[in-house]
Each structure stands twice: as structure tokens, then as C-alpha cells.
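Field log, afternoon session.

UNIT: design team B
ACTIVITY: writing a sequence onto a fixed backbone
BACKBONE:
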């Protein structure tokens, strides 16, 4: 019997836990700050166990890792290195769906010395995006070609029938994570030149995105694309861009939300008893006698179209509703976005992942696209939960069954990792459809 430790029981964890419980030789222990969430995930399964977790209790965390064969960290990313250090100490394999941080990368040799794999970025974005990209890149290279341009886009959105609010968005994962990502700097390569964007200007850099068979979307840069030139081995590439997909109008609205300053994480003690209207008036320095909407328009200047102001009003920023009992602006906005944009019972979300390559051979050029459009299951798992957690679950099984036996800190860019994971995802109807166009 192999012992799997799942740290965290959040929005995306259910498909992973249920998949692992279906493997007869696995015992699955789910440890969560809210133990009732872990109990619900296990749902009385005879090979499942729920445990309370205080991630700041080092002794408790160490004991949990010591008892397992592989630890899956679905905790906030700031805890991954702490878990990884314990996995190295006790020679336990580890899986996460998060980006590889510099601190995690620095553990590579120690992980190799311990004879373990620390597999990161094995979700959807990052994850399926890497795996589907590498399958195409290696196919091009193995046939004597080279990739000279790569653009990749991914987003989680409401399914068309559930797209019923002015933002074109609903939350299948942490609103705080979505909002914090809106402050990230970005960097990418276009036609051989590096483009750098400050976080405050992120949403000013957005473009329309046309995907065959899909409605028109918009996209903006996703973090730093440059390291993926090395990760993907793209020594001949001149354009390297990774973008986030949203429905049209999101970026113009988020420009204004960023400018209002409501994504600030500074702790405050002057919010008690205020309404959203009070807060907005404070942020825009509204003069007495001027309405909040008009004061906001004046503050935002040319960014404040009627459409954007309507969205801010729909969100409730001009309302008399009292602020929730939070002590930072970003936590107030997190609560408000979640309150206004939840998925209703039975509604579906969707994941859109799209790659666009230009490849060259000695005698020809091609454009290659790869498109994944996946929908959530009504009254069941969201697409976000499935596409984030099932790749991690499949990889966990492959590692524990000895079918992935590399060591060190990795993303899923090796054929021995991405081929079996993508093949199994296809049996679950999570399929990247590829097309080629002669140029």
C-alpha cells in the first residue's frame, strides 16, 4: 500500500482525491486547516483519512510528510518549499500544480541526491499548456524543423449559457489569486525584441484573440514568458508570448480597478463602519456635493467609459452596502467579487487553452495550432478543478507505480512525463486538438 498525502482541500482538490482513492493500492490522507472539508472529500472511503492541518505547526507537518510516500501540496505557493525541504529530508516524492519558484529550483541537486522527484507546474496553466506545447515542439524538432514563434493563451471562463454578468467572469478558484495576478509585471519576446510591462500597466496591454469556432476573446500578458524559451528548448524562437484569456471588456474595467487602488494589501484600521460608497469617495478624493459616479469619472479621466462605470456600479462600488469585516482593500474586493460573481448551482465553467506556433523546415513553413475547450460538469466538478487536479493525480499514480522515475525539480516537459499524462487525460475527454496550415 502506497501512502499519498494531500495537503489542502480547496476548490480544485476533489477530482484529484477521488481519482487517487480509485487506485486500489493507494491510501489517501487529506490534511486541511478545515478538517470538515477533508472529511467531505474522503466521503467515508475505506482507504481515505481526514486530518486537521496547521501548516505553521512544523512538527505536525513533518510527521505527516514522514508517514507518506508522496506529498501533494495544494497549499498556497508560499508553503511549497517548506514541504519540499521535508520531502528531501525523508526522501519522499512531491507534486504541486504551482509555478517553480527560484527557491524551489535551488533544491534540484538536493532532490536528486535524495533520489526523489519534485514535480511542479502539473495543472492546467501551468501544466497541460506545457505538456501539449512540448508534444508539438518535439514533433517539429524530431522531423528536422524548428519553432520560430510560439504564442500560448489560457483562461477559465463561464460557459456561454452561464455568462450572465457584465464582467464576463465567475470564480471557480480564489478571487484573491485572480486579483493579485492583476498586479504582476510581465515580459515577453516579440520579433526578437524583449517587451517589459509594469504591473500597473498590465491591463493596458491587451488585444483581441480569435480562435476558430469560438467567440472573440481578449488576452493580456501572463507573467514572464522569457524563461520558457529555455524550459521548452526553443533556441530559434523570435516570438514567445504567454497570455491570459478573458471575455471582452475585462481589461478596460480592471485598468480602472487597479487605478482606484483597491488591490492594495496594506493592513488598515480605518475601515470599520464604512460603506462601499464611502470607500470609493475616499479613493477618488470626491468633493462634497459631487456624486460618487461623477467623482469616479473625473478621477479616472479618459479610462472611464460609461460601460466601465456601469460595471463598477454593478459591482457595488457606489452603493450604501457596508464593507465586509476585512482590514485590507484587496480582501474587501475579494469578498465582493466572490459575492457578485459566484457560479450558481448547476452552472458550468469552461477552460480555453490555445497554442499558436510558426515552424520552419528547410523546404517549408507551417502554422500549427492546438486548442483545448473543456466544460465543467453540471452539479459536478468544475472544468477548473478537473484540469488543474487530474494531471497532478495522474502524475502521482505514475510516480508511485514507477512509471516516472526521473529525479530532481521538474516541470512536465519531458516525454516520459507528458506523454502518459496527456494520453490518460484524453480518455477523460480532456483533449488538445491540433491543426496544421501550410504557409
Amino acid at each position: 500500500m502506497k501512502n499519498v498525502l494531500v495537503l489542502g482541500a480547496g476548490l480544485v482538490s476533489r477530482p484529484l482525491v477521488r481519482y487517487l482513492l480509485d487506485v486500489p493500492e493507494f491510501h489517501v490522507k487529506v490534511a486541511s486547516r478545515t478538517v470538515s472539508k477533508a472529511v467531505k472529500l474522503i466521503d467515508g472511503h475505506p482507504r481515505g483519512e481526514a486530518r486537521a492541518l496547521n501548516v505553521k505547526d512544523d512538527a505536525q507537518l513533518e510527521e505527516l510528510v514522514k508517514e507518506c510516500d508522496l506529498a501533494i501540496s495544494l497549499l498556497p505557493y508560499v508553503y511549497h518549499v517548506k514541504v519540499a525541504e521535508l520531502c528531501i529530508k525523508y526522501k519522499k516524492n512531491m507534486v504541486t500544480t504551482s509555478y517553480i519558484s527560484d527557491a524551489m529550483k535551488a533544491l534540484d541537486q538536493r532532490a536528486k541526491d535524495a533520489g526523489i522527484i519534485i514535480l511542479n507546474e502539473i495543472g492546467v496553466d501551468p501544466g497541460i499548456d506545457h505538456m501539449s506545447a512540448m508534444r508539438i515542439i518535439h514533433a517539429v524538432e524530431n522531423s528536422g524543423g524548428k519553432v520560430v514563434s510560439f504564442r500560448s493563451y489560457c483562461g477559465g471562463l463561464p460557459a456561454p449559457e452561464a455568462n450572465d454578468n457584465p464582467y464576463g467572469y465567475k470564480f471557480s478558484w480564489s478571487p484573491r489569486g485572480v486579483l493579485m495576478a492583476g498586479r504582476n509585471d510581465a515580459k515577453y519576446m516579440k520579433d526578437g525584441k524583449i517587451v517589459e510591462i509594469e504591473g500597473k500597466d498590465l491591463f493596458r496591454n491587451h488585444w483581441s484573440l480569435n480562435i476558430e469556432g469560438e467567440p472573440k476573446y481578449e488576452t493580456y500578458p501572463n507573467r514572464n514568458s522569457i524563461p520558457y524559451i529555455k524550459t521548452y528548448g526553443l533556441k530559434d524562437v523570435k516570438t514567445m508570448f504567454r497570455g491570459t484569456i478573458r471575455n471582452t471588456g475585462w481589461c478596460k474595467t480592471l485598468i480602472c480597478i487597479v487605478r482606484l487602488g483597491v488591490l492594495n494589501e496594506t493592513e488598515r484600521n480605518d475601515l470599520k463602519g464604512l460603506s462601499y460608497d464611502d470607500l470609493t469617495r475616499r479613493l477618488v478624493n470626491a468633493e462634497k456635493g459631487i456624486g460618487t459616479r461623477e467623482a469616479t469619472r473625473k478621477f479616472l479621466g479618459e479610462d472611464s467609459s460609461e460601460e466601465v462605470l456601469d460595471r463598477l456600479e454593478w459591482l457595488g462600488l457606489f452603493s450604501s452596502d457596508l464593507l465586509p469585516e476585512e482590514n485590507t482593500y484587496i480582501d474587501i474586493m475579494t469578498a465582493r467579487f466572490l459575492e457578485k460573481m459566484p457560479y450558481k448551482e448547476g452552472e458550468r465553467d469552461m477552460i480555453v487553452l490555445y497554442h499558436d506556433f510558426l515552424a520552419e523546415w528547410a523546404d517549408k513553413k507551417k502554422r500549427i495550432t492546438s486548442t483545448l475547450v473543456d466544460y465543467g460538469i453540471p452539479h459536478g466538478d468544475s472544468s477548473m478543478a478537473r484540469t488543474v487536479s487530474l494531471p497532478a493525480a495522474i502524475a502521482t499514480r505514475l510516480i508511485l507505480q514507477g512509471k516516472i522515475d526521473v529525479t530532481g525539480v521538474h516541470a512536465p516537459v519531458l516525454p516520459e512525463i507528458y506523454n502518459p499524462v496527456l494520453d490518460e487525460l484524453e480518455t477523460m475527454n480532456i483533449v488538445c486538438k491540433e491543426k496544421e496550415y501550410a504557409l
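LOG NOTE: The chain is about 35% helix and 25% strand.
NEXT ACTIVITY: expression trials, pending approval
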